[in-house]
Amino acid sequence: MDELMREVDELYERAVFNGEHDGLPAADRALDLVEAHLLLQRGRILHCRYLDSRVEQPEELPAFERSADIFRAAGDRRGEAEALFWIGCFHQVVRDDNHAALPSLTAAADLSRATGEQLTLSYALRHLGIAAHVAGDYDQARVLLEESTDLRRALGFTAGVAANLVGLIYLALAQDRPGDAAKLATEAAELAASVGAVKIVEQIEAARARLG
Question: The CATH number of the domain where 20 resides is what?
Answer without folding.
Answer: 1.25.40.10
